[in-house]
Every structure is written in C-alpha cells, then in structure tokens.
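Bench log, entry 3. Co-assembly request; chain sequences pasted below exactly as received.
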Amino acid sequence: QVQLQESGPGLVKPSETLSLTCAVSGYSISSGYYWGWIRQPPGKGLEWIASIYHSGITFYSPSLKSRVTISMERSKNQLSLKLNSVTAADTAVYFCARDISASGAFEYWGQGALVTVSS
Amino acid sequence: QSALTQPASVSGSPGQSVTISCTGTTSDIGTYTLVSWYQQHPGKAPKLVTYDGFKRPSGVSNRFSASISGNTASLTISGLRAEDEADYYCCSQAGRNTFEFGGGTKLTVL
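Structure output for the full assembly:
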C-alpha cells in the first residue's frame, strides 16, 4: 500500500522560504509515476503547484513557477517542495500525491500539512 | 479565480442522480480531454473518483461516471447516498504537463 506523509514547519514568516518534505512508503519514487504537490487555502479550493517525474523532470504551475522548486531525494524515498518569498496568501494545507496517469490523476495522497505564513 | 468553472453547489435526494459540470476552454478541456474528478470530505485529503475523462480507479463505485463534451466535463453520481455529500473538484491538463483545478462544487444530499 502506497502511503505519503508530509512534514515541515507549521509556521513560516513572510518573505522567508517554505520547505516541506513528503516521505513515501510502499513504493520507490525512482521506479515510476509523476509525483506532485497540491495546496488548499483554508476554506478554499485546490491548486496544483508542481509535479516531478521519476526521472527528475519537473513541471510547475505558471503562476508559481518563479518561486517554487520541487525535487526528489531518492536515497530517502522522499519529495521536497520549496516556496520562497512567501506571503499570507501562501497559507494553506499542502498535499503531496502520486499521479497514476501523468494527467493530473492523483490517486494516492498524504494527509496534508497546514502551513501558516505569519510574523 | 479558477480557470475551470463549476457550480458552487448542487443538491439531490437519496436515490436520485446529480450531475456536476466543469466548464473550461479550448486551452484545457477542449484540447486535452484528460479530466479528473475528486471527492473531498471536510478535513480529509481529496479522493480520485474518475480520471482521463471517464476511467474509474480500482475500488471506486460505478455510481460515479464522467464524460466530456466540447469544453465541458461532467460528473454524474447515480443512486445518491448520504455519504456522497462532499465537495467535488474537476482537474484538467492545461498545457504540456500543467494542470488546473475547478473552484469546487458542494454537493448536498437532502
């Protein structure tokens, strides 16, 4: 059974960098599939942030591309997300997920990590 | 503001069918036809219910079906049950390996 678990600081100051990791168990991220990050501001809808192919090729939301980096650490079987120059608008629950069809079909999700941007 | 437009809310009685629409443009649904639908209960991660236009993941009830016509995707839930009450989101490819979500639809089971 594939399981994903996000972790990282729950509070980040404005203008700083948000860093999250996603530990994957039950499947080697190097073996296949696209892996992605999606966020959801409190009380609002979902927003796709970025995806990474098992080969390391990356894809970013045009609206966030200038501030986001997605990567994978194969030895630890985990994904990482970095979002710099954060503002209050970046406050959200951040999810990592596995895309089963390279088409935005995220079948396996983590439980989500709430990140609040505040001084 | 989401690029894909969904109704804010829909409702139906147990046993009935409801359809949720997701309207895009020729830049997304109209070109790629790779639409996914998600169900999300409060405080939970989204659950994939259909993908690639009409496919269902293993374990998802066949009460969930999806289709695409032109720039609009639709999710139909038949034999409505109380546990279907949730938020539903569509997601479409919107360029080479980029994706966008709809604004979400709250389904109320009366």
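Chain B touches chain A through 28 residues (CB under 8 Å). The first strand of chain B starts at residue 9 and ends at 12.
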